[in-house]
Structure formats: structure tokens, C-alpha cells
Amino acid sequence: MRRQLAMSTAVFTAVLGLAACDTEVTATPDKPAAAGDEKPGKEGEKAEQAQEKEAAAKVGDAITLKGFEDEKIEVTVVKVVDPAKSKDEFMTPDDGNRWLGIQFQLVNKGDKAYQDSPTNGMQVADADGQMFQTAFGEITAGPALSSDVRLAPGAKALGWVTFDVPKDVKVSQVQVALNSGMADHTGQWKLQ
Fold first, then answer.
1. Do the Cβ atoms of 138 and 87 come closer than 8 Å?
2. Which end of the chain is more exposed for a tag (fewer CB within 10 A), N or C?
3. Is 20 exposed, middle or buried (0-12, 13-18, 19+ CB in 10 A)?
4. Which helix (H) or strand (E) segment is 155 a member of?
């Protein structure tokens, strides 16, 4: 019995370790790589680092994310409103917090239908790595992104997502993952 338990634990640990190996965070926007001169040595390394910094996805850029069932969804951070104002007097940020609104566009670039609750897989962060989740509330900037997105191939969805963050926090990035945040591929955009 002990041997079976030890063997089961070892197999579970190995499978868990292999599953974690596939996680990928993409911070580079979709666009063809620019053909350029390769520079040898330290100058080449500095130029490459500068290109990587410039290539970080920002507001207006699209990143195509992959899901569990080979979904391919192009996600664009369209606009940011900080602070965002509530659409009514009943829904407001928690005391000491403010709302941040981000408009997203999702386009199904795959060859089969896509269904998800995309806001479950969205979070913002500050420069220290503190993460903040979405909030339930509509803002004056525009219509909210649906909590139940269903897209045929080529179809798109557009809407605002609200985040509840402390008033003194400077949000620097947003992350998105498909399949309610469970997919192994995450897109990351700089907001500053």
C-alpha cells in the first residue's frame, strides 16, 4: 500500500511538473518581425534589448492568444480610462479604491467557434507585481464586455472591463488568458 501511494505521488508530481512547463506569457504584439542588420558583440545585444523594450505590447496593440482547444483569439487593448466613473450611483468602487476601465476587442482568428467568460481571465498589476481582479460594475465610458462571449470564426466582441484598484496604486500592466484564465498562454500589455 505504501509503495502504491509513493508511486502515485511521484507520478502526480511528474505530471504536474510537465503541465507547468507549457505556460507562456507573451508581451510582444502581433506584427511581422522587421528585417534588420544583425550587429555582433555588445552593440548587438544592446540593440536587441532596446528592440525588445520597444516591442512590448501597449495600448492599441493586439496579441493572439491560444486556448486549451486550439482556440486562437486576437486580443487588443483598445483604450484605458483611469479613473472610470460608475454608470449609476448604486455600483461604486470599494472605500479607498477607484475603478479602472479597459476596453478590449476580441477577434476569433481560429477555424471553430469560441465560447468563454473572458473577464475571468483578466487582471491588472502594478510595478511591484500586486494583482487586481475585475469588478462587477458598468462605467460611463461605454458598454461592458459580455461575461458570456460566443464568437464564430472571424467574429469579434468589443467592450469595457472594470477593475477595482486602490486609489494610490499606479497600474502598469494588464494580463489576459483564455478559458476563464486557465489557459497556459497569457498576453501582457504595458499601460504606462
1. yes
2. N
3. exposed
4. none
3-state secondary structure of 23: coil
Topology annotation, domain 47-190: Immunoglobulin-like (2.60.40)
pLDDT digits (tens, 9 = 90+) for 113-169: 999 999 999 999 999 999 999 999 899 999 999 999 999 999 999 999 999 999 999
Q: How many CB atoms lie within 10 A of CB 101?
A: 23
How far apart, in whole angstroms, are the C-alpha atoms of residue 81 and residue 79?
A: 7
Whether the CB-CB separation of 125 and 172 falls below 8 Å is answered with: yes
- Boundaries of every domain in the chain: 47-190
Torsion of CA 20, 109, 187, 98, to 10 degrees: -130
